[in-house]
Amino acid sequence: MLIRDTKAGYGLAMRLMHWLMALAIVAMFVLGLWMRTLDYYSPYYNLAPDIHRSVGMLLLFLLVFRLAWRVVNEKPDDHELSRLEAVASHAVHWGFYPLLFALMVSGYMISTADGQPISVFGWFDVPSLIQGEGQEDAAGLVHEVLAYVTIALAAVHTIAALKHHFVDRSHILTRMWAGPPRR
Predict the structure, then answer these.
(1) Spatial CA neighbour of 56 closest among 118, 114, 124
(2) Digit-coded pLDDT (tens) for 131-178
């Protein structure tokens, strides 16, 4: 089983990071929407944001690791894509990194606006590095907008992958699901 990526497909490490992050980001979006409906008397009023912050910080660390992994590994060949599809794919894939980074940093800025660190599941604390007047509100607006943009882009990404798989009969989705073809 290949750990690293090759020209033929994604290795186990990238596939695990891709699917783990995809599931976690969708779950975080749903959790964020649900958190906004909680009132002060809900038993989840404090627990849900604690989980959201902790998972968000772990996703930020994973995003940085994933970007480093992406830089030092080969990218599978896009020979099955048209020139326009290859350019769009490249833009979307590289666009996800700054988008997700900004989303996660804005969440960090909401959570640390009061100068308190973020406790990540009680395992360790991430210190508050930046505080400012109105930081929580401004970061909250940015976080909300970026969350919707992320989900919209993820939906387009998913539709494109399914189109390539079912309509074009290409191996684009297969290489992210099963990795490089066996020899």
Answers:
(1) 118
(2) 989 999 999 999 999 999 999 999 999 999 999 999 999 988 988 999
In this prediction, residue 183 carries a pLDDT of 63
Average pLDDT of every residue of the chain: 95
**Taking the CB of residue 181, how many other CB atoms lie within 10 A of it?**
10
Q: Which helix (H) or strand (E) holds 47?
A: helix 47-72
What residue ranges do the domains of the chain occupy?
A: 12-177
Residue position matching structure tokens 């020209």: 7
Q: 83-111 and 47-72 are packed helices; what angle lies between their axes, rounded to 10 degrees?
A: 140
Q: Whole-angstrom Cα distance, residue 100 to residue 60? A: 8
Write the burial class of residue 2 (CB in 10 Å: 0-12 exposed, 13-18 middle, 19+ buried). middle
How do residues 62-105 score in pLDDT, each as one tens digit? 999 999 999 999 989 888 899 999 999 999 999 999 999 999 99
CATH code given to domain 12-177 = 1.20.950.20
| Count of CB atoms situated within 10 Å of the CB of 40 | 6
Which among 52, 61, 2 has a CA at the least distance from the CA of 32? Answer: 52
